[in-house]
UniProtKB/TrEMBL annotation:
InterPro entries membership: ADH-like_C, ADH_N_2, ER, GroES-like_sf, MDR_fam, NAD(P)-bd_dom_sf
SUPFAM superfamilies recorded: GroES-like, NAD(P)-binding Rossmann-fold domains
Lineage: Bacteria, Pseudomonadati, Bacteroidota, Chitinophagia, Chitinophagales
Pfam families: ADH_N_2 (PF16884), ADH_zinc_N (PF00107)
Entries under Gene3D superfamilies matching the protein: Medium-chain alcohol dehydrogenases, catalytic domain (3.90.180.10), NAD(P)-binding Rossmann-like Domain (3.40.50.720)
Protein name (database record): NADP-dependent oxidoreductase
UniProt feature coiled coil, ranges: none
PANTHER family hit by this protein: PROSTAGLANDIN REDUCTASE, PROSTAGLANDIN REDUCTASE 1
Domain called Enoyl reductase (ER): residue spans: 12-332
Entry keyword Membrane: no
Organism: Chitinophaga hostae
Keywords attached to this entry: Oxidoreductase
Length: 334
Protein backbone atom coordinates (compact mmCIF):
# COMPACT_ATOMS: atom_id res chain seq x y z
CA UNK A 1 0.00 0.00 0.00
CA UNK A 2 0.94 3.66 -0.31
CA UNK A 3 1.13 6.07 2.62
CA UNK A 4 1.76 9.81 2.73
CA UNK A 5 3.88 10.84 5.68
CA UNK A 6 4.82 14.16 7.21
CA UNK A 7 8.44 14.41 6.00
CA UNK A 8 9.35 17.49 8.07
CA UNK A 9 7.68 20.45 9.73
CA UNK A 10 6.95 23.50 7.54
CA UNK A 11 8.07 27.05 8.30
CA UNK A 12 5.38 29.37 7.00
CA UNK A 13 3.44 28.16 3.97
CA UNK A 14 3.85 24.37 3.55
CA UNK A 15 4.86 22.86 0.20
CA UNK A 16 5.23 19.43 -1.43
CA UNK A 17 8.62 18.88 0.28
CA UNK A 18 6.88 18.59 3.64
CA UNK A 19 5.25 15.34 2.49
CA UNK A 20 6.73 11.98 1.53
CA UNK A 21 5.03 9.01 -0.15
CA UNK A 22 6.20 5.52 0.85
CA UNK A 23 5.24 1.96 -0.06
CA UNK A 24 4.62 -0.46 2.78
CA UNK A 25 2.70 -3.65 3.52
CA UNK A 26 -0.10 -4.19 6.01
CA UNK A 27 0.12 -7.04 8.54
CA UNK A 28 -2.27 -9.98 8.36
CA UNK A 29 -5.77 -9.22 9.64
CA UNK A 30 -6.34 -10.42 13.23
CA UNK A 31 -9.72 -11.45 14.74
CA UNK A 32 -11.81 -8.33 15.49
CA UNK A 33 -10.00 -6.28 12.86
CA UNK A 34 -11.27 -4.72 9.66
CA UNK A 35 -9.31 -3.58 6.62
CA UNK A 36 -10.73 -0.47 4.95
CA UNK A 37 -9.96 1.32 1.73
CA UNK A 38 -10.58 5.06 1.65
CA UNK A 39 -13.07 6.46 -0.88
CA UNK A 40 -12.91 10.18 0.01
CA UNK A 41 -10.59 12.17 2.21
CA UNK A 42 -11.38 15.57 3.64
CA UNK A 43 -8.64 18.20 3.74
CA UNK A 44 -9.21 20.96 6.28
CA UNK A 45 -7.47 24.20 7.30
CA UNK A 46 -6.92 23.10 10.94
CA UNK A 47 -4.55 20.41 9.63
CA UNK A 48 -1.95 23.13 9.10
CA UNK A 49 -1.77 23.52 12.89
CA UNK A 50 -1.16 19.79 13.30
CA UNK A 51 1.92 20.11 11.09
CA UNK A 52 3.54 22.26 13.82
CA UNK A 53 5.03 20.77 16.94
CA UNK A 54 2.70 22.69 19.19
CA UNK A 55 0.29 21.74 21.96
CA UNK A 56 -3.30 22.33 20.90
CA UNK A 57 -6.75 20.84 21.25
CA UNK A 58 -5.61 18.05 18.94
CA UNK A 59 -2.12 16.44 18.94
CA UNK A 60 0.40 17.28 16.20
CA UNK A 61 1.20 14.95 13.30
CA UNK A 62 4.47 13.11 13.91
CA UNK A 63 7.36 13.40 11.47
CA UNK A 64 7.73 10.06 9.67
CA UNK A 65 4.13 9.04 10.42
CA UNK A 66 1.14 9.18 8.05
CA UNK A 67 -0.87 12.39 7.94
CA UNK A 68 -4.49 11.72 8.91
CA UNK A 69 -7.78 13.44 8.15
CA UNK A 70 -11.49 12.72 8.17
CA UNK A 71 -12.60 10.37 5.46
CA UNK A 72 -15.16 7.91 4.20
CA UNK A 73 -14.00 4.36 3.52
CA UNK A 74 -15.25 1.02 2.31
CA UNK A 75 -14.68 -2.26 4.12
CA UNK A 76 -12.36 -4.42 2.02
CA UNK A 77 -11.98 -7.36 4.40
CA UNK A 78 -13.45 -8.02 7.81
CA UNK A 79 -12.77 -10.28 10.79
CA UNK A 80 -15.45 -8.54 12.84
CA UNK A 81 -18.99 -9.96 12.34
CA UNK A 82 -20.50 -6.47 12.44
CA UNK A 83 -18.85 -5.48 9.15
CA UNK A 84 -19.01 -6.96 5.68
CA UNK A 85 -16.96 -6.15 2.62
CA UNK A 86 -18.58 -3.20 0.85
CA UNK A 87 -19.94 -1.50 3.99
CA UNK A 88 -19.36 2.25 4.01
CA UNK A 89 -17.65 3.38 7.21
CA UNK A 90 -15.98 6.26 9.00
CA UNK A 91 -13.57 5.98 11.86
CA UNK A 92 -14.87 6.86 15.30
CA UNK A 93 -13.58 6.97 18.82
CA UNK A 94 -10.69 8.96 20.22
CA UNK A 95 -9.12 9.64 16.84
CA UNK A 96 -11.88 9.91 14.23
CA UNK A 97 -9.48 10.02 11.28
CA UNK A 98 -8.21 7.86 8.44
CA UNK A 99 -4.46 7.70 7.87
CA UNK A 100 -3.37 8.95 4.45
CA UNK A 101 -2.94 5.41 3.11
CA UNK A 102 -4.51 3.41 0.32
CA UNK A 103 -5.66 0.89 2.94
CA UNK A 104 -5.64 0.71 6.74
CA UNK A 105 -6.54 -1.68 9.54
CA UNK A 106 -8.92 -0.70 12.35
CA UNK A 107 -10.46 -2.61 15.23
CA UNK A 108 -14.20 -2.84 14.63
CA UNK A 109 -14.90 -0.73 17.74
CA UNK A 110 -13.14 2.21 16.13
CA UNK A 111 -15.38 2.25 13.06
CA UNK A 112 -18.98 3.19 12.50
CA UNK A 113 -21.21 2.30 9.56
CA UNK A 114 -22.73 5.14 7.61
CA UNK A 115 -25.78 5.28 5.38
CA UNK A 116 -24.47 4.85 1.84
CA UNK A 117 -27.68 6.19 0.26
CA UNK A 118 -26.79 9.87 0.75
CA UNK A 119 -23.84 11.40 -1.10
CA UNK A 120 -20.79 10.14 0.81
CA UNK A 121 -18.98 13.47 0.69
CA UNK A 122 -21.80 15.06 2.73
CA UNK A 123 -20.33 13.31 5.78
CA UNK A 124 -17.22 15.45 5.29
CA UNK A 125 -18.97 18.69 4.37
CA UNK A 126 -22.56 19.71 4.68
CA UNK A 127 -23.54 17.12 7.31
CA UNK A 128 -20.03 16.79 8.72
CA UNK A 129 -17.71 19.13 10.59
CA UNK A 130 -18.04 22.20 8.30
CA UNK A 131 -21.85 22.18 8.21
CA UNK A 132 -22.08 21.59 11.95
CA UNK A 133 -19.56 24.36 12.58
CA UNK A 134 -21.71 26.79 10.62
CA UNK A 135 -24.84 25.60 12.40
CA UNK A 136 -23.60 25.77 16.01
CA UNK A 137 -21.57 28.94 15.48
CA UNK A 138 -24.73 30.64 14.29
CA UNK A 139 -27.29 28.96 16.58
CA UNK A 140 -25.26 29.24 19.76
CA UNK A 141 -23.12 32.36 19.38
CA UNK A 142 -24.41 34.37 16.40
CA UNK A 143 -28.09 34.02 17.39
CA UNK A 144 -29.44 35.73 14.28
CA UNK A 145 -32.64 37.77 14.43
CA UNK A 146 -34.72 38.66 11.38
CA UNK A 147 -33.67 41.93 9.80
CA UNK A 148 -30.07 41.81 11.07
CA UNK A 149 -26.97 41.95 8.86
CA UNK A 150 -24.63 38.96 8.91
CA UNK A 151 -21.14 39.19 7.42
CA UNK A 152 -19.15 36.00 6.89
CA UNK A 153 -15.52 35.82 5.78
CA UNK A 154 -14.22 32.76 3.94
CA UNK A 155 -17.75 32.90 2.55
CA UNK A 156 -17.24 30.65 -0.48
CA UNK A 157 -15.71 27.82 1.56
CA UNK A 158 -17.11 24.74 3.26
CA UNK A 159 -18.26 26.54 6.42
CA UNK A 160 -18.95 30.00 4.99
CA UNK A 161 -21.36 28.92 2.28
CA UNK A 162 -23.59 27.33 4.92
CA UNK A 163 -23.33 30.30 7.30
CA UNK A 164 -24.68 32.69 4.64
CA UNK A 165 -27.59 30.42 3.81
CA UNK A 166 -28.51 30.00 7.48
CA UNK A 167 -28.47 33.80 7.73
CA UNK A 168 -30.97 33.96 4.85
CA UNK A 169 -33.18 31.26 6.41
CA UNK A 170 -33.27 33.38 9.59
CA UNK A 171 -34.43 36.43 7.64
CA UNK A 172 -31.12 38.30 7.77
CA UNK A 173 -29.14 40.23 5.17
CA UNK A 174 -26.20 37.96 4.20
CA UNK A 175 -22.94 39.51 3.05
CA UNK A 176 -20.01 37.28 2.08
CA UNK A 177 -16.32 38.10 1.74
CA UNK A 178 -14.25 35.82 -0.51
CA UNK A 179 -11.39 35.91 -2.99
CA UNK A 180 -12.09 36.32 -6.70
CA UNK A 181 -14.87 37.49 -8.98
CA UNK A 182 -16.15 33.98 -9.73
CA UNK A 183 -16.64 33.18 -6.06
CA UNK A 184 -18.47 36.45 -5.51
CA UNK A 185 -20.80 35.74 -8.40
CA UNK A 186 -21.44 32.24 -7.11
CA UNK A 187 -22.38 33.57 -3.65
CA UNK A 188 -25.01 35.97 -4.93
CA UNK A 189 -26.27 34.02 -7.95
CA UNK A 190 -26.28 30.45 -6.63
CA UNK A 191 -26.36 30.75 -2.85
CA UNK A 192 -28.65 33.72 -2.37
CA UNK A 193 -26.26 36.09 -0.58
CA UNK A 194 -27.51 39.70 -0.74
CA UNK A 195 -24.04 41.04 -1.44
CA UNK A 196 -20.51 39.69 -1.74
CA UNK A 197 -17.13 41.37 -1.60
CA UNK A 198 -14.03 40.22 -3.48
CA UNK A 199 -11.25 41.03 -1.01
CA UNK A 200 -8.59 40.23 -3.61
CA UNK A 201 -10.05 42.72 -6.07
CA UNK A 202 -10.55 45.56 -3.57
CA UNK A 203 -7.97 48.07 -2.43
CA UNK A 204 -10.36 49.47 0.18
CA UNK A 205 -12.29 46.65 1.71
CA UNK A 206 -13.56 48.91 4.53
CA UNK A 207 -15.43 51.03 1.97
CA UNK A 208 -16.84 47.90 0.33
CA UNK A 209 -18.12 46.66 3.69
CA UNK A 210 -19.71 50.02 4.45
CA UNK A 211 -21.46 49.96 1.07
CA UNK A 212 -22.67 46.37 1.45
CA UNK A 213 -23.86 46.88 5.04
CA UNK A 214 -25.77 50.20 5.13
CA UNK A 215 -27.19 49.30 8.56
CA UNK A 216 -23.88 48.12 10.03
CA UNK A 217 -22.97 44.55 11.03
CA UNK A 218 -24.86 42.61 13.70
CA UNK A 219 -23.08 39.27 13.33
CA UNK A 220 -19.58 38.78 12.00
CA UNK A 221 -18.83 35.07 11.49
CA UNK A 222 -15.05 35.11 11.32
CA UNK A 223 -13.38 32.35 9.32
CA UNK A 224 -10.19 34.15 8.33
CA UNK A 225 -8.96 36.79 10.81
CA UNK A 226 -6.22 39.24 9.87
CA UNK A 227 -6.88 42.43 7.93
CA UNK A 228 -10.27 41.33 6.62
CA UNK A 229 -11.53 41.00 10.19
CA UNK A 230 -9.91 44.29 11.22
CA UNK A 231 -11.97 45.96 8.50
CA UNK A 232 -15.27 44.27 9.42
CA UNK A 233 -14.95 44.90 13.14
CA UNK A 234 -15.00 48.68 12.61
CA UNK A 235 -18.57 48.31 11.31
CA UNK A 236 -20.00 46.28 14.21
CA UNK A 237 -23.28 47.49 15.69
CA UNK A 238 -24.31 47.83 19.31
CA UNK A 239 -24.71 44.31 20.78
CA UNK A 240 -23.04 42.65 17.77
CA UNK A 241 -21.96 39.01 18.08
CA UNK A 242 -18.73 37.64 16.62
CA UNK A 243 -18.40 33.83 16.46
CA UNK A 244 -14.65 33.28 16.05
CA UNK A 245 -14.51 30.16 13.95
CA UNK A 246 -11.12 30.26 12.23
CA UNK A 247 -8.17 32.49 11.41
CA UNK A 248 -6.85 30.94 8.21
CA UNK A 249 -5.13 34.19 7.15
CA UNK A 250 -2.79 33.68 10.11
CA UNK A 251 -2.10 29.93 9.97
CA UNK A 252 1.12 30.34 7.97
CA UNK A 253 2.54 33.38 9.72
CA UNK A 254 6.03 33.00 11.14
CA UNK A 255 5.87 36.06 13.41
CA UNK A 256 3.32 36.97 16.05
CA UNK A 257 0.59 38.78 14.10
CA UNK A 258 -0.39 42.21 15.38
CA UNK A 259 -3.38 44.36 14.59
CA UNK A 260 -5.46 47.25 15.88
CA UNK A 261 -6.66 47.24 19.50
CA UNK A 262 -10.33 46.36 19.27
CA UNK A 263 -11.22 46.22 22.96
CA UNK A 264 -12.35 49.88 23.24
CA UNK A 265 -14.83 49.35 20.41
CA UNK A 266 -16.01 46.11 21.96
CA UNK A 267 -16.64 47.90 25.25
CA UNK A 268 -18.48 50.88 23.86
CA UNK A 269 -20.58 48.78 21.46
CA UNK A 270 -21.14 45.91 23.94
CA UNK A 271 -19.82 43.35 21.45
CA UNK A 272 -19.76 39.64 22.26
CA UNK A 273 -16.82 37.80 20.67
CA UNK A 274 -16.53 34.08 21.32
CA UNK A 275 -14.13 31.50 19.98
CA UNK A 276 -15.31 27.92 19.67
CA UNK A 277 -14.28 24.54 18.37
CA UNK A 278 -16.86 22.21 16.99
CA UNK A 279 -15.83 19.46 19.40
CA UNK A 280 -17.52 21.53 22.13
CA UNK A 281 -20.84 20.50 20.59
CA UNK A 282 -20.14 16.76 20.13
CA UNK A 283 -23.12 15.77 22.30
CA UNK A 284 -25.45 17.91 20.14
CA UNK A 285 -24.33 16.77 16.66
CA UNK A 286 -27.62 14.88 16.19
CA UNK A 287 -29.58 18.13 16.54
CA UNK A 288 -27.36 19.88 13.99
CA UNK A 289 -27.50 17.05 11.45
CA UNK A 290 -31.30 16.85 11.78
CA UNK A 291 -31.79 20.58 11.20
CA UNK A 292 -29.31 20.79 8.31
CA UNK A 293 -30.88 17.71 6.65
CA UNK A 294 -34.33 19.28 6.90
CA UNK A 295 -33.11 22.49 5.31
CA UNK A 296 -31.45 20.51 2.51
CA UNK A 297 -34.63 18.51 1.87
CA UNK A 298 -36.68 21.72 1.82
CA UNK A 299 -34.30 23.18 -0.77
CA UNK A 300 -33.22 25.96 1.62
CA UNK A 301 -29.58 24.96 1.73
CA UNK A 302 -27.51 24.10 -1.31
CA UNK A 303 -23.94 22.91 -1.34
CA UNK A 304 -20.96 22.68 -3.60
CA UNK A 305 -17.68 20.79 -3.50
CA UNK A 306 -14.30 20.84 -5.16
CA UNK A 307 -13.26 17.24 -5.79
CA UNK A 308 -9.60 16.54 -6.49
CA UNK A 309 -9.01 13.14 -8.06
CA UNK A 310 -6.39 10.67 -6.86
CA UNK A 311 -4.66 9.66 -3.64
CA UNK A 312 -1.39 11.28 -4.77
CA UNK A 313 -3.11 14.67 -4.93
CA UNK A 314 -3.83 14.83 -1.20
CA UNK A 315 -0.95 17.21 -0.33
CA UNK A 316 -1.81 19.47 -3.27
CA UNK A 317 -5.45 19.62 -2.18
CA UNK A 318 -4.50 20.51 1.39
CA UNK A 319 -2.12 23.24 0.19
CA UNK A 320 -4.82 24.50 -2.20
CA UNK A 321 -6.93 25.60 0.78
CA UNK A 322 -4.39 28.34 1.44
CA UNK A 323 -4.58 29.73 -2.08
CA UNK A 324 -8.36 29.45 -2.32
CA UNK A 325 -8.40 26.70 -4.95
CA UNK A 326 -11.68 25.38 -3.59
CA UNK A 327 -15.27 26.51 -3.78
CA UNK A 328 -17.28 24.87 -1.02
CA UNK A 329 -15.87 21.75 0.56
CA UNK A 330 -12.50 20.48 -0.69
CA UNK A 331 -12.36 16.68 -0.85
CA UNK A 332 -10.07 14.14 -2.49
CA UNK A 333 -11.56 11.15 -4.30
CA UNK A 334 -9.12 8.28 -3.94
P1 LIG B 1 -12.65 26.60 3.35
O1 LIG B 1 -13.42 25.64 2.53
O2 LIG B 1 -13.22 27.94 3.63
O3 LIG B 1 -11.22 26.74 2.67
C1 LIG B 1 -10.32 27.71 3.04
C2 LIG B 1 -10.59 29.04 2.31
O4 LIG B 1 -9.97 30.06 3.06
C3 LIG B 1 -9.98 29.12 0.93
O5 LIG B 1 -10.81 28.59 -0.05
C4 LIG B 1 -9.75 30.62 0.77
O6 LIG B 1 -10.86 31.21 0.13
C5 LIG B 1 -9.70 31.15 2.19
N1 LIG B 1 -8.36 31.67 2.52
C6 LIG B 1 -7.18 31.01 2.46
N2 LIG B 1 -6.18 31.83 2.82
C7 LIG B 1 -6.74 33.03 3.12
C8 LIG B 1 -6.23 34.29 3.55
N3 LIG B 1 -4.92 34.46 3.75
N4 LIG B 1 -7.10 35.31 3.73
C9 LIG B 1 -8.42 35.14 3.52
N5 LIG B 1 -8.96 33.98 3.12
C10 LIG B 1 -8.13 32.94 2.92
O7 LIG B 1 -12.30 25.95 4.75
P2 LIG B 1 -13.35 25.56 5.88
O8 LIG B 1 -14.69 26.06 5.52
O9 LIG B 1 -13.17 24.14 6.20
O10 LIG B 1 -12.82 26.41 7.12
C11 LIG B 1 -13.04 27.82 7.18
C12 LIG B 1 -12.46 28.33 8.50
O11 LIG B 1 -13.15 27.74 9.57
C13 LIG B 1 -11.00 28.01 8.69
O12 LIG B 1 -10.36 29.08 9.34
C14 LIG B 1 -11.03 26.81 9.60
O13 LIG B 1 -9.85 26.67 10.36
C15 LIG B 1 -12.25 27.12 10.44
N6 LIG B 1 -12.90 25.96 11.02
C16 LIG B 1 -13.13 25.99 12.36
C17 LIG B 1 -13.78 24.98 12.99
C18 LIG B 1 -14.01 25.08 14.45
O14 LIG B 1 -14.36 24.09 15.08
N7 LIG B 1 -13.86 26.27 15.03
C19 LIG B 1 -14.23 23.78 12.26
C20 LIG B 1 -14.02 23.87 10.82
C21 LIG B 1 -13.36 24.93 10.24
P3 LIG B 1 -10.73 32.59 -0.72
O15 LIG B 1 -10.57 32.18 -2.13
O16 LIG B 1 -12.01 33.28 -0.43
O17 LIG B 1 -9.52 33.31 -0.20
Amino acid sequence: IKQILLANRPQGLPDANNFKTVETALPELMPGEVMVKPLYFSVDPYMRGRMNDAKSYIPPFQVGEPIESSGVAEVAESRDDRYQAGDKVMSSGPRPFLPWATAAIFTGDHLRKIDGSIPLTYYLGLLGVPGLTAYFGMADIGKPKAGETVVVSGAAGAVGIVVGQIAKIMGCRAVGIAGGSEKIKMLTDTFGFDAAIDYKGHSNIGAAIAAACPNGVDIYFDNVGGEISDAVIKHLNFFARVPLCGQIALYNTTEVPVGPRIQPLMVTRSVLMQGFIIGNYANRFGEGIKQLSEWVKAGKIKYTETVEEGFDHLPEALLGLFSGRNSGKMVVKV
